[in-house]
Specification:
binds ligand LFW5757T, 365 residues, disordered N terminus, lipid biosynthesis, two-stranded antiparallel ribbon, endoplasmic reticulum, transmembrane helix, nine-stranded mixed β-sheet, membrane, binds NADPH dihydro-nicotinamide-adenine-dinucleotide phosphate
């Protein structure tokens, strides 16, 4: 990781007109009625992002794409209780099921004529196992900070297979989102408009966990790291493919955040117990953002950027200082065009196979 840049979150500029203060119209008009779709919006970082977006822009058309109707309705209710006039709609989407992606995107295409932001945030880390021996060794290795900010060498997961015959982690964290983007292309690539794809990746993404010969990570024990590295590569490929049509893709890492995902690693009472230690570690790494609000910092920061100004080789990290101040910092990703293009080709091939399989199944019934 090289070239770090710290960036403060910017707010809509205000201008004084005849004694009254109003928001700069040129900026505001650009944002009015923007359509934002967030996957995995019913909890954690996704829900915190939605709260922050509505506090920034009351005119947003926000669509929460979630797999569980009850949890989605509860999230919508909590957003409406703090923003009663907000436009918040729901769409049922299980990103790990390709049939669900096709059904949801059909509905989204009927509902909206364009999409300004697509947050690809839903993600899983099933049955995580912590290697406590590696943790103990890491403490005295001189690489403790790196270990705490990336979790490198500390975690393995147990994967399973979906009804489409795909690896669950790959299908959820990457492939379902890839198909989502492909299906929503007409809404994202509108002449005269620019749109943003924003992936919730991770600093746990590691080149050595990923292989072009085993895209789905069937053979390893780190499907999470592999899927997040694949999302970094895919984001670059999407930029190469779609920038000329006004579509821009970026990746972020929210830092270590206390959410359902981390409560799957260690129980919530244990995290609460070691909270003072984590505040202490935060002083040295700033990557322990800990709350969903803090973790959503980079997602929120990107919302306010001109996408043309973003560098496709950088990852945007949410960071929180020892004093609790949030900021976004960029770090260069360990990715290259050749691997990214090769992954993209393989995903297109896989897409064809999946579509063929679904068509065959439809014909059989
Ligand atoms: N927490 C952390 O420390 C870090 C998290 N991240 C990433 O942040 C993202 C958000 O996770 P986080 O907020 O932490 O955890 P949460 O578990 O709180 O949020 C994950 C969200 O994804 C949804 N989701 C999972 N599987 C599917 C699916 N098949 N279809 C649709 N939605 C699905 C969940 O829905 P449901 O409620 O139905 O399960 C939930 O809303 C993930 O991509 C994660 O990898 C990255 C780095 C660190
Ligand atoms: C005293 C301690 C803080 C003990 C906790 C040890 C480990 C369980 C954590 C140390 C670093 C953590 C970490 C993650 C999970 C939990 C740890 C390994 C992540 C891998 C979670 C998901 C992500 O995407 C990463 C950004 C996290 C990196 C740090």
């Amino acid at each position: 990781m090289t070239s770090n840049h710290t960036i403060e979150a910017v707010r809509i500029p205000e201008v004084k007109t005849g004694g009254s203060v109003r928001a700069d119209c040129s900026v505001l008009n650009e944002r009015m009625g923007k359509v934002v779709l967030v996957t995995g919006a019913n909890s954690g970082v996704g829900l915190a992002l939605c709260q922050r977006l509505l506090s920034e822009d009351a005119q947003l058309q926000l669509c929460l794409a979630c797999r569980n109707e009850q949890r989605a309705a509860a999230a919508r209710q909590s957003l409406l209780s703090s923003h009663p006039k907000a436009h918040v709609s729901l769409v049922r989407l299980d990103v790990s099921s390709m049939r669900s992606v096709l059904r949801a995107t059909e509905e989204i295409r009927q509902r909206y004529s364009r999409l300004d932001y697509l947050y690809l945030n839903a993600g899983i880390m099933p049955s995580p196992q912590v290697d406590f021996r590696a943790l103990y060794k890491g403490l005295f290795s001189g690489k403790a900070i790196h270990m705490f900010s990336t979790g490198e060498g500390l975690l393995t997961q147990k994967d399973s297979v979906t009804s489409d015959g795909l690896q669950q982690v790959f299908a959820t964290n990457l492939f379902g989102h890839f198909l989502l983007v492909r299906e929503l292309e007409p809404l994202l690539c509108q002449p005269g408009h620019s749109s943003q794809l924003i992936w919730t990746s991770s600093s746990n993404a590691r080149r050595s966990a990923f292989s072009l010969d085993d895209l789905q990570h069937k053979q390893g024990a780190e499907p999470y790291s592999s899927s997040k590295y694949a999302s970094d590569l895919l984001s670059l490929a999407l930029n190469r493919r779609y920038n000329s049509q006004g579509l821009y893709s970026s990746v972020i890492c929210p830092g270590l955040v206390m959410t359902n995902l981390t409560y799957g690693i260690l129980p919530s009472f244990f995290w609460s117990l070691i909270m003072p230690i984590m505040w202490l570690i935060r002083i040295f790494t700033n990557t322990f953002t800990l709350t969903p609000y803090n973790g959503a910092e980079a997602l929120f920061w990107l919302f306010m950027q001109k996408p043309e100004s973003l560098d496709p080789m950088l990852k945007y990290h949410s960071l929180t200082s020892g004093l609790g101040n949030n900021y976004t910092q960029t770090r260069k990703m360990d990715i290259d065009d050749a691997t990214s293009a090769a992954l993209y080709e393989k995903l297109l091939e896989m897409e064809k196979t999946v579509r063929r399989k679904l068509n065959d199944e439809d014909e059989e019934h």
